[in-house]
Automatic annotation (TrEMBL):
<keyword id="KW-1133">Transmembrane helix</keyword>
<keyword id="KW-0812">Transmembrane</keyword>
<feature type="domain" description="DUF218">
    <location>
        <begin position="76"/>
        <end position="242"/>
    </location>
</feature>
<dbReference type="InterPro" id="IPR051599">
    <property type="entry name" value="Cell_Envelope_Assoc"/>
</dbReference>
<keyword id="KW-0472">Membrane</keyword>
<feature type="transmembrane region" description="Helical">
    <location>
        <begin position="12"/>
        <end position="30"/>
    </location>
</feature>
<dbReference type="InterPro" id="IPR014729">
    <property type="entry name" value="Rossmann-like_a/b/a_fold"/>
</dbReference>
<dbReference type="Pfam" id="PF02698">
    <property type="entry name" value="DUF218"/>
</dbReference>
<feature type="transmembrane region" description="Helical">
    <location>
        <begin position="37"/>
        <end position="56"/>
    </location>
</feature>
<protein>
    <recommendedName>
        <fullName>DUF218 domain-containing protein</fullName>
    </recommendedName>
</protein>
<dbReference type="InterPro" id="IPR003848">
    <property type="entry name" value="DUF218"/>
</dbReference>
Length: 248
């Protein structure tokens, strides 16, 4: 029963509600002009599919499976890419917090640090006027997690992945570093690797922050609209477009 209720909710609340409304308009148009109603029906179906976990997970999974966890960790610096941050929000030892994906990347970097002892370089600036400076926030949180300040490098100017790679290369060169272990979300890794290679770096990819389980199964909820699914669809399409732009 609980799964049935969840399925009903998905069509009563946005974004599923918009699919229901568009289908209603399609039926109303069908009585007046069939060609426009067919066009609207096609658009509605595409919109519906983009909202389902089935499609969102398919697109995200195709990105996340491109790089495996390395069996042997070799490098001289752990490079972590930011993924957004808030400003002024309360934290344990200050203000400002990393978004979920960036926080997951940070945790992976700390665990790698404890395993390897390599310094951590966090790359990410203040993207918008009302967002937090990612590298500055990350440095405070890294120190709160026990990483010494002497083992933390910050690149706090970059506004996108292309700048992450370019500014990170400059900082690494100034510190005599040349073999980065790149930590970022698994869905973001293909685009990030292209940008780093375009800048003459050959990092060891260490993907994290997975969103799609390897053991995927079909059930009713995978066919019902959800905000998370449409976010995954949009994120995956953005990554593919960014990858193509960086490649060509």
């Amino acid at each position: 029963m609980i799964y049935f209720i969840k399925s009903v909710y998905s069509f009563v609340l946005p974004p599923g509600l918009f699919v229901v409304l568009l289908l209603g308009v399609t039926i109303w148009l069908w009585r007046q002009s069939r060609r426009p109603s067919l066009v609207l029906f096609g658009i509605t179906i595409l919109l519906y599919l983009s909202m389902t976990p089935l499609i969102g997970d398919l697109l995200m999974g195709s990105l996340e499976r491109q790089y495996d966890k390395p069996e042997l960790i070799q490098g001289d610096v752990i490079v972590v890419l930011g993924g957004g941050a808030t400003s002024g929000t309360p934290d344990i030892d200050g203000e400002g917090n990393l978004y979920g994906s960036a926080a997951n990347r940070l945790l992976t970097a700390v665990r790698l640090y404890r395993e390897t002892g390599l310094p951590i370089l966090f790359s990410g600036g203040q993207v918008f006027a009302d967002s937090g400076n990612e590298a500055n926030i990350a440095k405070r949180q890294l120190m709160g997690l026990g990483v010494p300040e002497t083992d933390i490098l910050t690149e706090n100017r970059s506004l996108n992945t292309e700048q992450n790679a370019a500014y990170t290369k400059l900082l690494m060169k100034s510190k005599g570093l040349s073999h980065p272990i790149l930590v970022t979300s698994a869905f973001h890794m293909p685009r990030a690797m292209i940008h780093f290679k375009n800048n003459g770096l050959l990092p060891l990819a260490y993907p994290t922050d997975y969103t799609v389980s390897l053991d995927r199964r079909l059930y009713l909820a995978r066919f019902t609209p959800s905000p998370g699914a449409i976010n995954n669809t949009g994120t995956a399409l953005k990554e593919y477009l960014g990858y193509l732009a960086a490649r060509f």
